[in-house]
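>> Question from a student workshop board

For tomorrow's exercise we were told to take the sequence and the ligand below, predict the bound structure, and bring the output to class. My setup keeps failing. Could a helper post the expected result so I can at least see what it should look like? The ligand is magnesium ion.
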Amino acid sequence: MVSDEFSFIHQYFARLKHAALPESSSAGVVLGIGDDAAILKLSGNYAITTDTLVENVHFFPNFNPHLLGARALEVNFSDVYAMGARPQYITLSLDLSERYLDFDKFWQAFAQGVEECLARHNCLLIGGNVTRSNNRNAPLTISATAFGQCVGTGLLRRNGAQVGDRIYVTGSLGSNGLYVKTVYNNSLRNLDSDERRHFEEHAFAYDARMSKFVEHVVAYSQCGIDVSDGLLGDLSHILMQSHCCALLNYESLPLDELSRSLLPHFKISEKSLLKLGLSAGGDYNLIFTVPQDKQAAFEAELKQDPELEGFLCTCIGEVVASESEQDWDHNFLATDSGLITIVNAQGEPTTLRLGVGSFNHFLRNSSLSEV
Ligand code: ADP
Ligand code: MG
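>> Workshop helper replied:
Here is what the output should look like for this input. Compare the format with yours to find the bug.
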């Protein structure tokens, strides 16, 4: 039993300031965990972002704590990378109910997940906060704020897409959406425990080589966003801010292979997996655009980087001009209003009906219930 907030911080988190990182990562930290605030001495441009995970909204009460610790950081790292920056420092805040105070095994695994993730991304934990609610049923809430140094001078802005640009996405689509769906409908139980663990780890895996990858992206792109709420919805943000439309090639969409192989266990069709890949949140891939005349050089450079062997990055379509008048300021449900067309190999529009484009906390008819 942890007696108070201070011993809780000490037991699980304060020691992480010694996380095994190269010396370069503590450059700039005048003072880390242990005082009223951290002190940093910075130079250059920084991307700063906050993201929160809430029990029952972003994760299930019995979710694997080791993966949860990493996830709490990665949802922030993903935003940092999507600006063309590399995470360097992070703070972590936990709001817990009394119920959680005694879960020693949970917090040990959570802190280990945090520690390993910090090491993978070469990022330093510089502070945080812990609050405790007397309401035993209050959800566990985990917030982190990441500070990332911009790589090079360019930024990846949502308004940076130009007609003719190629659209790329990293990683594969649909595993996280499928995992969440099969937890909800109980069909995850159709897998044996080893398969289940493997699928869970796969669905929450985040390739830390993004840190290397982003160097190449900023050299060729001015436009990017991370996929936190579903590919179509997040791509729509780019299109709305860049005032253009997109054609996506149905055949090139990188559906997740492991998820595809598991579909018979869940009695789910490939088309439903595709819908999850396009509209469910949680894959945390990066979408970015590259001007057409730089496409060949960009792809050649990626192939030549030995550190990125096997790193998935797929060209899924192109940016096109809008054929009709658009109300760019009010086009919130862009996938419904035709900004994105998915075409088959012959270039004909497909009849894929997706409804609302992505997960939206303020819409009841979100993709989770819709697919
Ligand atoms: P204060 O009362 O001034 O807010 P705290 O007791 O909350 O101070 O925190 C003491 C130190 O521990 C601070 O340096 C703070 O940044 C750090 N800290 C608190 N919670 C966490 C956490 N969850 N992870 C990492 N560091 C933390
Ligand atoms: Mg505090």
